[in-house]
Amino acid sequence: MAGRNVDPITLSVVRGVLETTQREMTLTLEQTARSSVFNLAHDYSTALFNHTPEMILQGQDIPIHLGSLIPAMKSVAKFFEGDIHEGDIILHNDPAYGGSHIIDTCMYFPVFYEGELMFWTVCKGHLTDIGGPVPAGYNPNATEIFAEGLRIPPVKLWDRGVPRNDVINLLLTNMRARRDQEGDFNALIGACQVGARALKGLVDKYGKQVVQDCIAELLDMAEAHMRHLIAAVPDGTYSGTAILEDAGHGFGDFEITATVTIEGDGCHIAIQSPPQIPYFINSYEGNSHSGVYLGVMMFAQLPPPYNEGLYRCVSTDMGAKGTLCNAQSPAPHMNCTTTPMETLTDAVRLAFEQAAPDKVSASWGHANGCNIAGWDKRHDEEYVTMVLASIISGAGATASQDGWHAVGPECCFGALTSGDIEMLEHSYPIIIHRYSLMEDSGGAGRNRGGSGTCWEVEPLDTPMTLITFGEGRRIPAMGAAGAKSEMVSKKVGRLEITRGGKTEVITDNVIETIQPGERAANFNPGGGGFGPAFERPVERVVDDVKNGLVSLEGARRDYGVVITDAATLDVDHAATAALRRA
Amino acid sequence: MQTQYRLGIDAGGTFTDFILADRDGHVRIVKALSTPQDPTLAIRNGLALIEEETGISPAEIVSNADLCINGTTVGLNALITHRGAKTGLIATAGHEDSIEIRLGHKEDGYRYDPEYPPATMLVPRHLRHGVRERVISTGAVHTPLNEDDVRAACRHFLAEGVQSVAISFVWSVLHPDHERRAAEIVREMMPDVMLTVGSELYPQVREYTRTSTAIVNAYLGPILAQYVEAVDRQFRAMGAKNPVRYFQSNGGLATGEIVANQAVYAINSGPASAPQAALYLGQPYGEENLITVDMGGTSFDITLTWQGRANVSKNIDFLRYRIGIPMIQVETLGAGGGSIGWIDPMGLLQMGPQSAGSEPGPACYGRGGTQPTTTDANLVLGYLSPGGLVGGRLPLDVEKAREAIRIHLAEPLGLSVERAAYGMFTIVNTNMVNGIRRVSVERGYDPRDFVLNCAGGATGSHIMALAREIGIRKVMISKLASGLCAYGQILSDVKYNYMAPAPIRLEGAEAAAQLDALFNGLEIKGRADLTQDGFAEDRIGIRRSLDMRYVGQVHECTVSVDPFEITEASLDRLKAAFHARHEELYTYSEPNSAVEVVNVESAIAGKVDRPNRMRLAPGKGSEAAVKGLRPMIFAADGVSQETPVFDGAALGAGDTVRGPAVIEEVTTTLVIEPGWTAVLDENGTYVVTAD
Predict the structure, then answer these.
(1) Which of A297, A492, B211, B451 has the smallest number of Cβ neighbours within 10 A?
(2) Which residue of B has its CA nearest to A186?
(3) Backbone phi, then psi, for B322, in 5-degree steps?
(4) In whole angstroms, how far apart are CA B152 and each of A369, B144, B147, B185, B197?
């Protein structure tokens, strides 16, 4: 703080303007984007960086992007060091330069003031396609990143205010549904410009030095706050191990271990994972940052705003190069933002559960969903999209309340929106037969995990390809504080395909084609429970039964509550007491 | 104006405001405490106060008046406390849970908060019944309605004692027959319940929005019906000759019967009349671009008009419930006189949204409040008179205010009490400025192009600072500011919205003909309704809006146009309006991309007679109105200067007050900052401009 001239009032004002700026960028993206993945899923980030570049404000976007923009911005600035000009717009998606997965496309806009670089406005969004052999990018058969789509190292899309149409054309030519991708490039650029406009207004008003001093101070304050939280945790080494299930690759289940070392007001998180595999669940370092930071935030439980100062006292080691959580080229990686990120987060969360048991919440349901693609006869055009409604799982319960229904998956932590089913049917030739909560899907506990969802679809009049991804189809979301479930099969995800009256249950990641008249139902897991399930008050179990969230069998097996009459919901209290004692 | 009086009643949370205008240009403002248990009591109390002041009896006023009232508080309270009617939902099987899934989203700001609860369900899951039926996106029937399922739902509802039923099916807007048939069955089996049919209430594409809107309507309907009945009965008993008009959140008036059936239009209608009042005040100056700010005890409401039209919002979350119907956009912040100053975990000074409310209230009220609030800061800064508010009815204690600020803010931050107070003032203003950006910048408008207009009793201390921060150079403050919304009601037209789904790409003659027919159909119905309501053809006005987007976009942008015949040739006019709006909002447009419409709406208004403006006698110069001097603080350094205090009642038309100064009106205090000059016009509006 030495030498800074910061008064506490101006500081609060600058903070407010930064938040408003980020909000206006977000709104622009949300309202204009073509990709339902990023404007409904909020599968984007908008962030502001200073000139150094350190992240000075991160939007309240999905945690998938919590960390990865930080290393990405730094590598982009380094790549173009000495060659950054007013009016440049840089695009990048490559995980080798700190990106998450290549379908997340980032736009970086340097903001100059009186000829001096002061800020970067940055946006990142999940496009609907990035080229490659499989529509929407999720190719479970890819053994290398090259078979997943177009890798884009930092490249200038605009040079000193002039669009480089040859470059833009080269990129778009390699993507499906070009119209949508082009629209989304425009949306990202528009959002960056909206942000730049607001930041220049801030400097107009307060001057460069005051703004820079306030920002430096805000970073320091965030750092101090996180240090304060960590200092309250007893020094020591805590470790958590979570299991990443084999979702069809055949290499078996893997363990990911997080070792959290707390020393004073600092924290070191070391990750250990098996060697990378030729399957799309490898996570490069940038993406792994997001997984780790989400675990930290589940402990810190901080309200916004968020900036890079929060992580100054958190050092990380993602493990040896060439491992699952610190992958290197040419590892395939498309699924990494959900798998293994959620398992990585669980491992960190488990370590913190031991370090600070009073601040624990249960794990959320992991993502397992589908992308769809086919031909739309109504307009004679191809369609391809990730279906957000197919990944909505349940939230983990906390010490104070049941988990929220239908706000997962864990990697999104409630930030996404799944889109209105009529708008989906309007945009794609499909019929959505069901979008509902699921009986018995929430993890059992004194506080129950939130319900997962079922999304059931039928193609309207042409065949449809479904490409599934994720895991959480065998191992349910982990409970906390001693919660666990007996009835597991209802709490995990699965895909059910019904053809000619026969239903096939699929728990691997697959590419399937279904015809009109056939249906695919994607089930998502519920969240984990909190505390022993037999301690859940009987009347709350009865209320869940009344509302179809728990079945009679579930009441008995998961909660030890014996209901003798399905209509009146009368409870046999003696039998209940006996079961609960056992 | 055919009757002798127009009486506007704005039933707010703390006060019920009355504005009484007569044919001769007298306009009076009266405030009575709200009586949430029995809103008609506040009406009787207010009329009694008017009689005390003027000698005109309630019966004389009511029997010679057009009466305009809102039902905001009734609807809001029921929604906030979850004390609406016991409601059941009949939905398409497989889609019973859309209102609980809420598009899979948790509100921003609570991402990692382990204690933020889910929204309370207005209809619990066991009262949401799926029935087998399905219409698809082309409007074709995929599965016919299973009537036995509807009957089973009714039997369940009867057994449960359900009082209100909502029916909402997927794509019912393209093929309403299933909902209509289900409604017949419900009416037959449950003749006593209130019934809301999704495709009738809100015929627009988006199932979640439509279902949620229908449920809010069903949940509030019986409560609003009771309120309307009580108010109508009260006024009939007092001799009212004309039907009472109720103010709606769409910015227009409606009859009681319509408000009871469309209860969702009544919630948050209070602040929605501000734009009409603003336009009326601005009219003599040709001002049509106005932002109105209304600061009360706990909240701050912002509305905007551009070129004479108020911003409208559709498809928003209100108190955590999705509501589709077009409402005047009201941006509400937790920033009021009672907002508490505190230091957040990062060490930053924050104001609100927690509020000390009116009980215990700000520390300076001396009713046990110990937290420093906006009002405490304004008192320390010298803006408010230690003699108290509301004409001295509420005395203020400066020492308690200083103490609260010193303990909770000044000492922890290492500032003097004066500097901390100015900091509180600055931060609450920053919050409000950020709110103003939401109605302006986020809607594609530059706030510097607007006049800032004052509503509400607490706004006068802040409005000049807000103008300064935003870069606005002209401010209007009416003597009626503290009851401006009630005033807006008696200036408003009768207005109804007619909507239709229109998923149509804007290409070719067929699309044009389809759109033209849709609008004409809506407007024929609208004209018929207003004619029946007594409006002559030449008093009926129409404004169209279309929700449009580039093909492939997920969100629409609403484009508003005057009616014209839609032909293949004139489609370009619609497209041009859309491209222009997109560019205003988002910095770019795509003139070569395909455009589609999703929903259309016609707002149809019947113009009412407006009362005459307030008339003030010419002033005798402002010097005579100086009551005294008070030290006030106008800068971050916390240094005070002796500043004149004017008695507003002693000022007349044409009188000029140069800042720094304070003008005290009975129901509000205006702070004129240095560098600004206020001129009181003959209509009772202070027009304040930057030097």
Answers:
(1) A297
(2) B588
(3) -75, 125
(4) 34, 17, 9, 11, 18
Claim to verify: residue B565 and residue B648 sit in the same structural domain: no
Stated pTM of the model: 0.93
Determine the angle formed by the axes of helices B484-491 and B274-282, rounding to 10 degrees: 80
Contact A398 B114 (CB under 8 A): yes
- Clarify whether residues B558 and B632 are in a common domain: no
pLDDT at B163: 98
The rounded distance, in Å, linking the Cα atoms of B114 and A359 is 9
For chain A, say whether B91 makes contact (Cβ under 8 Å). no
Task: Report the distance separating Cα B573 and Cα B568, nearest Å.
Answer: 10
Q: Does A564 touch chain B (CB under 8 A)?
A: no
Cβ partners under 8 Å of residue B81, min gap 6:
none
Nearest-by-Cβ selection for B114 from A301, A453, A547: A301
Give the gap in angstroms from C-alpha B50 to the nearest C-alpha of chain A.
44
Structure tokens at B465: 């600072």
Residues 535-554 in B contacting A (C-alpha not used; CB under 8 Å): 550-554
**What 8-state DSSP symbol labels residue B269?**
-
Question: How much is the pLDDT for A10?
Answer: 87
Q: Where are the alpha helices (DSSP H) in A149-269?
A: 165-173, 178-206, 208-231
Domain count for chain B: 4
> CB distance from B427 to chain A under 8 Å?
yes
* CA distances (Å), origin A494, targets A28, A299, A344, A453: 36, 30, 21, 11
- Beta-strand ranges (E) seen in B241-360 are 245-247, 253-255, 290-295, 300-306, 309-310, 312-313, 316-318, 321-323, 327-328, 331-333, 339-343, 349-355
Q: Do B96 and A419 touch (CB under 8 A)?
A: no
- Convert the pLDDT of each residue in B638-680 to its tens digit: 999 999 999 999 999 999 999 999 999 988 899 999 999 999 9
At residue A1 the predicted structure's pLDDT band, cuts being 50, 70 and 90, is very low
Both B646 and B681 in one domain: the answer is: yes
Chain B nearest C-alpha distance from A66 (Å): 12
B354 near B339, Cβ under 8 Å?
A: yes
Looking at residue B33, what is its pLDDT?
A: 83
What CATH number should be reported for the domain holding residue B193? 3.40.1360
B559 close contact with A: CB closer than 8 A: no
User: How many C-beta atoms lie closer than 10 Å to residue A305's C-beta?
Assistant: 20
pLDDT, tens digit, 9 for 90 and up, residues B169-213: 999 999 999 999 999 999 999 999 999 999 999 999 999 999 999
Least confident interval from A424-428, A436-440, B686-690: A424-428
Highest mean pLDDT among A200-209, B343-352, B580-589: A200-209
Phi-psi region of B449 (alpha: psi -120 to 50; beta: other; left: phi over 0): alpha
ipTM rounded to 2 decimals: 0.93
CATH assignment of A8-224? 3.30.450
pLDDT digits (tens, 9 = 90+) for A233-277: 999 999 999 999 999 899 999 999 999 999 999 999 999 999 999
Residue B29 to chain A, least CA–CA distance (Å):
37
Mean pLDDT calculated for residue range A492-501: 96
Domain assignment of residue B391, given as a range: 274-492+615-691
Nearest to B524 by CA among B537, B514, B506, B513: B537
> Using CA atoms, how far apart are residues A102 and A126, in angstroms rounded to an integer?
9
Bridge partners, residue B451, by sequence: B290
**CA-closest candidate to residue B121, choices A399, A538, A402:** A402
Q: Do B553 and A414 touch (CB under 8 A)?
A: no
Residues B485 and B503 in one domain: no
- Give the pLDDT confidence of A17-75 residue by residue, as tens digits: 899 899 889 888 887 887 766 666 677 889 999 999 999 998 877 788 767 889 999 99
At A432, give phi and psi (nearest 5°): -95, 110
Contact of B24 with chain A, judged by CB distance below 8 Å, is answered with no
Q: Kindly state whether residues B648 and B595 are assigned to the same domain.
A: no
